[in-house]
Amino acid sequence: MPDMSDKIVLLGGVLRFNPWGMVICAVFLAAYFAHWASNIRKTGWGLDYWHFTIFFIVVVPVLLMYPVSGSIYQALAIGDRNFAILDSWIETALGVSLVGFLGLLGGRELFDWIGPSRSAGIVNSVWGPFARMFHRNIMSGACQVVLVALSLLAASVVFSAVGLDGLAKIRDFFLKNESIRPFYNLLLSVYPLLPLYYWLRSMEARGAVRLGIFIPLLIAVAVLGSRGAFIAVAFLIYAISIFRKGGRLSVFRMVLVLIGLMLFAILLDAMRSGGDLYGGLISIWSSIFFGNNLSDLRDFAWLISVWDGTPFLGKTYAAALMGFLPRFVSDFRENWAFGVVSATMAGLSPQSHAGLRPGVFGEAYFNFGLIGVLVLGLVNGFLLRYGDWEIKRLWASGGGPAAMYVATVPYQVGAAFFLTSGFWGIYLLFIVHICAACLRRMVVHERIRAGLGSGRL
To answer: Cβ(45)–Cβ(246) under 8 Å?
Structure first.
């Protein structure tokens, strides 16, 4: 049995890792890029949904961040005492995460073993009617109408509470004000869909967007205090723009997009903190490697180190399924929402801290152990492969960006179980589309009564 306690220290403590752990990460990285290269040779797709998603949920936060997760500079973010406790558990967190990765790969293989057409048929037997509804809602504009209405409702409450002067610290304000926090969460959940759906509809209907409308809509996502939501929407739009071209990837353009997003994040951070761009540049690099942006392995190890070993047996998932209830009206949610549980385990106050993020397999591990990790990976690997296969099928048959986005929703639902702190966003997604479908029917009914026909809706 290799000794996992010895650590190699490089660059003055910036990198600190176990050599065997690094070898294992290197093997998984080599396998990932070899599979990607093989896929390019076989299909011609330089970027597809499978490799794009795996890159952001496993490759970056687990495989690439492993040598940084044990850095001595992590103590600056979480304190010397906490770092000393979690340090010996980083390899355990790595091992559990890789078991989950194997589950994802198993789900992909299961999809292909059953047969892509039959596997897609299994998913579509449940998802098919919803897929048609989602696509019609986006292309008719009905969904965007509902999103605007909900965003205006939530924004009126949010801005009357915080004021324009409080925008820089808007997230901190609502962490401390539970009674009106649901309105802020509503705004963060529904508004990012507005620029996304506007882009999808415009590109599928006209092949172009009005930048004077699209760019302000997108920037407002970040101004609301959700830099992560801004980056997620921007990356999804960029990915779908590549998918609609058959996966043809321009490395130069990809680098420009990454640099542009990084510079925007630096500018936003500098504006919030009142600093300059140089200070923002230093801050963003420190935040990326030693802050809370890519801290999955570190936070996972932190929680394992203070866990008493008693499994939660689905309690945090049950609390997530009750996500339509605000925490302050449900004692069960107040105690078992994963954000509350993880913050409490780490000795932090749930009133001022949203909780830790133990990667995509941490919550499953605390609830059901390695079996839960494998099952969650298997299901999501299957759904991720479905989205990947369906996007390629749509491209071959002339499907547009909106249809490609709709193909990713089953995986989005499954992925909500990776970390359930934002699970209520899934409820909102379906509520928005059900309301949009009702709106479409009302408009069609009124057009028929007026003798104008059903129109495009």
So the answer is: yes
Residues 6+ apart with CB under 8 A from 271: 168
Q: Residue 36 corresponds to which tokens in the numbers above?
A: 């990607």
Element (H, E) at 8: strand 8-10
Cα–Cα distances in Å, from 425 out to 190, 199, 413?
A: 8, 20, 10
Angle between helices 401-415 and 227-243 (to 10 degrees): 130
C-alpha to C-alpha distance for 357 and 276, rounded to whole angstroms: 29
Instruction: Give the model's pLDDT for residue 112.
Output: 96
* Residues pairing with 10 in the sheet: 15
What tokens does 85 get? 């406790």
More confident residue, 208 or 343: 343
Amino acid at 102: L
In 191-313, where does DSSP find H-type helix? 193-205, 211-223, 227-243, 251-273, 277-290, 296-306
Whether 95 has a pLDDT exceeding 80, the answer reads yes
C-alpha to C-alpha distance for 440 and 457, rounded to whole angstroms: 6
Is residue 144 classed exposed, middle or buried when 0-12, 13-18 and 19+ CB atoms within 10 A define those classes? buried
CA 304 from centroid of its chain's CA atoms: 23
Of 194 and 157, the structure prediction assigns the larger pLDDT to 194
What pLDDT does 219 receive?
75
Give the model's pLDDT for residue 3.
Answer: 46
Nearest partner of 294 among 47, 36, 59, judged by Cα: 59
The pair of three-digit structure tokens given for residue 124, joined into one six-digit string: 């579509």
Pairing verdict, β 8-10 and 15-17: antiparallel
Report d(CA 382, CA 413) in Å as an integer.
12
Retrieve residue 192's tokens. 């990012």
The angle that helices 211-223 and 251-273 make with each other, rounded to 10 degrees, is 50
Number of alpha carbons in the 13 Å side-chain half-sphere of residue 230? 20
Q: Indicate the domain borders of the chain.
A: 8-449
Largest CA distance in the chain: 79
Secondary-structure breakdown of the chain: helix, strand, coil percentages, each rounded to the nearest 5: 75, 0, 20
CA distance 242 to 397: 16
Q: Give the CA dihedral 231, 233, 236, 237, nearest 10 degrees.
A: -110
Answer for the pair 297, 93: CB distance below 8 angstroms, yes or no: yes
141: left (phi over 0), alpha (psi -120 to 50) or beta: left
pLDDT band at 279 (very low <50, low <70, confident <90, very high): low
Positive or negative, the CA dihedral 20, 22, 23, 27 is positive
